[in-house]
What we know:
Elements: H1 2-17, E1 28-32, H2 36-51, E2 56-60, H3 66-72, E3 77-82, H4 89-96, E4 99-104, E5 110-115, H5 119-122, H6 131-134, E6 148-152, H7 160-168, E7 172-176, H8 180-193, E8 199-203, H9 207-210, E9 214-215, E10 244-249, H10 252-255, H11 257-265, H12 270-282, H13 287-297, H14 299-312
Helix pairs in contact: 1-14, 2-12, 2-13, 11-14
Amino acid sequence: xxxxxxxSAAVMALAGSGMALADSSDPIKIPINEWTxxxxxxxxxxxxxxKAGYExxxxxxxAVPQFAAIAQGDLxxxxxxxxxxxxxxxxxxxxxxDIVVLGQLxxxxxxxxxxxxxxxxxxxxxxSYDALYECAEAxxxxxxxxxxxxxxxxxxxxxxxxxxxxxxxxPFEPVAGGSEGAMIAEAKSAVATGDPILMMFWQPHWLFAxxxxxxxxxxxxxxxxxxxxxxxxGKACGFxxxxxxxxxxxxxxxxxxxxxxxxEAMSLDNSVQNALMLEIDQxxxxxxxxxxxxxxxxxxxxxxxxxxxxxxxx
Length: 314
C-alpha cells in the first residue's frame, strides 16, 4: 500500500510538471474538419493529451471522409461529431464496432434555416416554413427568380437542405455555400444592405453573438425528426437536431488508456466555444493562442480530466 501511494504521488507530480510518460510513443492523430468550433474542440483535446505527456498530430480531414480513416485506425478520435451530418459510413462503423462512441461533448446544438428579422416584413407568416411557399420571390436572386434562393452547406457536407426542399416541394433553389467563411460573408453583406437571405446554419457559433438572426420554425415531429423521408407540406419537421458525440477507433482505449480516460471525462459547452470562436473568427487571433489562453485560465476545469487519465495509466 505504501509503495502504491508513492507511485501515485509520483504520477501526480509528473502531471503538474507536464512530464508524464505516454502509453505509446506513437502520436495520437486528431482530424481537423472544416469549421472553427471543431478546431477548438480538437485543439483543446490535443492540448490536454499533451499535458499528460502524449504526442499529438493534427490531420486535415473532411467531416464525412474522416469516419473511414477513424474506423481503419489511420486517425484515432474525433471530439465533435454532429450526429445528423455523418453519411452512411459512420453508423455502419459504430454498428460493427470499428468506431466507439465515448459520450457527448456537452455542446447543445441546433441546425436549420436562419434569416434576419427584417425579412418578416417582406414575408409575413415567418418564422413558419409555410410562409416560404407564399413569398419565395421575396428571397429570390437574379439567377433563381421566381424561386427563392437558399444557401446550403458546402457540397462536401452533404445535401440535407436540398433533400428537404425536394421532399416538401418548396419553391426555392438550393445553392451550396463555398465554405463556412463564404456563407458568413454573404450573411453579413445581406444584413448590411437589408437584402434577402435564407441560409442553412448551426449553433453554437459566434454568428449569433454578432448578428440578430431567427430560425425557421417547422411542424412538430411525431417522435424524432426523420430527414430522409416522409416529410411533406403540413408534416415537415425540417432537420433532426443533433447530438454532438465524442468517438474513437476501437483500439484507442487499449492503445492509449490514459488519453481515453481524459477524452471520456472532458466536456465543453456553448459558452466556451462561442467565446473562443469570436476571438478567432472576428478578432483574428491565432487558434493556438486562444486555446492556450483558455487552458491557462481554466486549470480547475480540466485538471480533473487529466488526473483521470494519469490514474488510468497506472
